[in-house]
Design a protein that fits this description.
The chain is α+β, with helices and mostly antiparallel strands. It is built from 2 helices and 4 strands; from the N terminus they run E-H-E-E-E-H. A 4-stranded mixed β-sheet has the order 2-1-3-4, covered by helices on one side. The longest helix has 14 residues. The radius of gyration is 15 Å and the shape is globular.
Length: about 120
């Protein structure tokens, strides 16, 4: 428990989940939008920056996050910030700005109304 808030300390400061879901029958999905490459890049950059491990950042794969219309998508917790990205430059900006320094990358935010 954290003495100042009486709540348990989180094992990770931030957790980013990448949707890697692949839908059958040709439906739109993050896997078709090169989500695996985004995940791999993020994992690499987090490690290079020394941000991985307990008390820091965890990069995880996820199944469908139900925001397919904005794909590919990733979500950062505990803030609940949803991102879309196109290339490694976008991933680098998410790592450097949000995961490292806690500053949301406004230009990559998924519009609230976009779902499946």
């Amino acid at each position: 428990m954290n003495a100042t808030t009486n709540s348990p300390k989180s094992y990770y400061t931030r957790h980013i989940f990448f949707c890697l879901n692949e839908r059958k029958a040709g439906e739109e999905c993050c896997a078709q939008q090169h989500a695996q490459e985004g995940f791999d890049r993020c994992k690499q950059r987090v490690k290079e920056a020394g941000l991985s491990g307990p008390g820091q950042v965890r990069v995880n794969k996820a199944g469908c996050l139900d925001r397919c219309a904005a794909g590919p998508v990733a979500v950062v917790y505990p803030e609940g910030v949803w991102y879309t990205y196109v290339d490694s430059t976008d991933i680098d900006e998410i790592v450097d700005s949000h995961l490292k320094n806690g500053k949301v990358v406004e230009r990559l935010l998924v519009p609230e109304h976009l779902g499946r």
